[in-house]
Amino acid sequence: MAILLERDVYCLDLRNHGDSPHSERMDYPALSADVERFIGEHKLEQPILIGHSMGAKTAMAVCLRKPKLCSLLVPVDNAPVDLTGGGAGFSKFGTYVKQMEKIDGNHKLTSLKDCDKILAEVEPNKTIRQFLLTNMKPDDEGGYRCRVPLDIMEKTLDNISAWPFNYEISRWNGPALFVRGTKSPYLADEYLESVAKFFPRFEIRDVESGHWVTSENPSAFVGAVSEWIRYQESD
């Protein structure tokens, strides 16, 4: 059961996502600088950072770059490791991008059901497909356009898989809760040693789901996070 925390929540669209501006530069120093600027401009004091996947690495990067900026850190289903070489955390995002390029501007696809059939060629999980389709919006010619600049995403996938920090230089000693999906490879046990080097005060919570934790099992995710935050703030 989720615990009512009674605090403001800011949901940020990172660059090249949602309604935020598009930029050719897409890496964690730039993404974290965007978040740091938002925190500064809104005069937020000791906020809690929660991020999923790319957002998880962005949140981690903020804490490593500005150790005194935030109070608590909750990375969701990602680890502070470089995955550009594949391995256990091999990403399907490149495949998703290519399929969404088939949808983008294709005026033969006149409904989200049509778009879903394209994604179903590479992703059997309907929940994940529905999540990906939230990036599509109707255009003026009867088809669908993607809010995300797919050309930039395709060129910068290696940047998003990378991890440009060294634990011997950057470390955060604040409380951190790493939430992982039990069916996801992105925060496997083999990565916990790296987690500990960067975030020595970390804890792990498992949620029954794949990588898309917040969409596949939102109640368990919210319950785990809110319980942990309440405990940290009462300690």
UniProtKB/TrEMBL annotation:
What InterPro entries is this protein classified in? Answer: AB_hydrolase_1, AB_hydrolase_fold
Q: What Pfam families does this protein map onto?
A: Abhydrolase_1 (PF00561)
What are the entry keywords?
A: Hydrolase
Q: Which domain of life is it from?
A: Eukaryota
- Which residue numbers delimit the AB hydrolase-1 domain? 6-78
For this chain, one GO molecular function annotation is: carboxylic ester hydrolase activity
Q: Which GO terms describe its cellular component?
A: mitochondrion
The positions making up the signal sequence are none
Q: Return the similarity comment.
A: Belongs to the AB hydrolase superfamily.
Query: Known PANTHER family for this protein?
Result: PROTEIN ABHD11
The protein here is known as DEKNAAC104285
What is the native source organism of this protein? Answer: Brettanomyces naardenensis
